[in-house]
Amino acid sequence: MTVFWTIFAGVIIFVSGQIFIRLIIEPVSDLKRTVAHIAYVIIKYADVYCNPGTNEAKESEVSKEFRNLSSRINAQMYLVPWYDVCRHLFGLPKKKNISRAMRLLIGLSITVYKSTRGVEIQNAKKADEICELLGIYVTDRHIADINESSE
């Protein structure tokens, strides 16, 4: 009978662990991956959104990428159960920060095209704010490069 209870306990622990992984760990990991991808895209496409209208071949691609990331980060936030608790445990951004970053990403997706004068400076500021809101570390030198390229 002890063997049965040992096996039963092992199965319960295994199933509980799998439920925890699928319901909490994977959504948190996916959200963190999206934040990392946002960091990657902000640096990769700085030449496009800080100089709108100069690289028409990439503008549509960059616009779609920003809009896609905006949608993805918002959706993934809702997949994390007990977000306010998980946020503290796993170092996730606040809901209001994700919401603001989502709107800024949509704003960047709109303003990568040739537009009014001075939009490149606004875009660089949007990128900086997105990084701040999501806890993305970008060196001061990179931010200076973005600001210099927009002048």
Annotation keywords:
80% helix, elongated, mainly alpha, 151 residues
Architecture blueprint of SSEs:
Layout: H1 2-44, H2 46-49, H3 56-79, H4 83-90, H5 95-110, H6 119-134, H7 140-149
Helix pairs in contact: 1-3, 3-5, 5-6
Brief digest:
The chain contains seven helices and no strands. With 151 residues, the protein is mainly α.
Number of helices: 7
Instruction: Give the N-terminus to C-terminus distance in angstroms.
Output: 78 Å
**How do the SSEs run, as a string of H and E?**
HHHHHHH
Q: What are the low-pLDDT stretches, counting only 5+ consecutive residues below 50?
A: none
Q: Pairing-aware structural class of the strands and helices? A: mainly alpha
The largest pleated sheet is described as:
none
The total count of strands amounts to 0
- The residue-averaged pLDDT reads 88
Count of domain modules: 1
Tell me the overall shape: elongated
Strand percent estimate: under 5%
Share in helix: over 70%
Please give the radius of gyration in angstroms. Answer: 20 Å
Walk me through the structure.
This protein has 151 residues and is an all-alpha fold. It has one domain (27-149). 80% of the residues lie in helices and 0% in strands. Helix 1 (2-44) packs antiparallel against helix 3 (56-79) and helix 3 runs antiparallel to helix 5 (95-110). It is elongated. The chain starts with a helix and ends with a helix. The model has no long low-confidence stretch (mean pLDDT 88).
